Amino acid sequence: MAKQLQQFEYSVYDDITELDDADAWLLNEARDVTQHAYAPYSHFQVGAIARLVNGEIIAGSNQENASFPVGLCAERVALAAAASVYPEVAIETIAISYHNLNGDSSQPISPCGICRQSLAEVEMRQQEPIRLIMGGLSGKVIIVEKANDLLPLAFNGSLLSI
Ligand code: THU
């Protein structure tokens, strides 16, 4: 038996003013696109903005449904949109923000488990890491250099015999 330790490093900024211009712009876009969310049930509006390696920008926002499990998170909407418009172009960075209409929006949020699995698939497909910039409408910002860092021991398709 062997014990393994997995750890990862991430950056925490006091606020958006500490980011470089390109990252600050992306996070501001994510903040803006929270307004496009359809979140009549949770009142928790999430925005995700992907910057592709060719410089293109793709937006996503959460899209809920009266049948709750049908709803889509902003991150997966952005991933699907990017793959649909530019299937051959890698995603370099995704900024994620939210507006909690019922409360505070000043803490960073990180992707849910399903979105982490979706991000892992895209990273494997494109063979390039996806940076994540996570921040609310104000307050601290977290940057993770590889989305996969958020899903240790992830399941992937390499063992599927199909
Ligand atoms: N949501 C996202 O869109 N992204 C996240 O990272 C966390 C949660 C959505 C799902 C649901 O529409 C609402 O936020 C409340 O969970």
Q: Mind sketching the topology for me?
A:
Elements: E1 11-13, H1 21-33, E2 44-52, E3 57-61, H2 74-85, E4 91-100, H3 113-126, E5 131-135, E6 141-144
The structure holds tetrahydrodeoxyuridine.
Short description:
It comes from Chitinophaga dinghuensis. The protein is an alpha+beta fold.
- The tally of domains stands at 1
> Would you count the extended β strands for me?
6
Shape: globular
The number of helical segments is 3
Task: Give the second-level CATH assignment, the architecture.
Answer: 3-Layer(aba) Sandwich
Percent of residues in helices comes to: 10-25%
Bound molecules: tetrahydrodeoxyuridine
Roughly how many Å apart are the termini? Answer: 32 Å
CATH uppermost class: Alpha Beta
Order of helices and strands: EHEEHEHEE
CATH superfamily caption:
Cytidine Deaminase, domain 2
Question: Low-confidence stretches at least 5 residues in length (pLDDT < 50)?
Answer: none
> Would you tell me which CATH topology applies?
Cytidine Deaminase, domain 2
- Cα-atom radius of gyration: 16 Å
Strand order of the largest sheet: 1-6-5-4-2-3
Q: Please outline the major beta sheet.
A: 6 strands, mixed
Helix-and-strand structural type? alpha+beta
Report on this model:
The chain is α+β, with helices and mostly antiparallel strands. It is 24% helix and 22% strand. The protein has one domain: Cytidine Deaminase, domain 2 (3-Layer(aba) Sandwich). Strand 4 (91-100), helix 3 and strand 5 (131-135) form a beta-alpha-beta unit. The radius of gyration is 16 Å and the shape is globular. The protein starts with 10 loop residues before the first strand and ends in an 18-residue tail after the last strand. It binds tetrahydrodeoxyuridine.
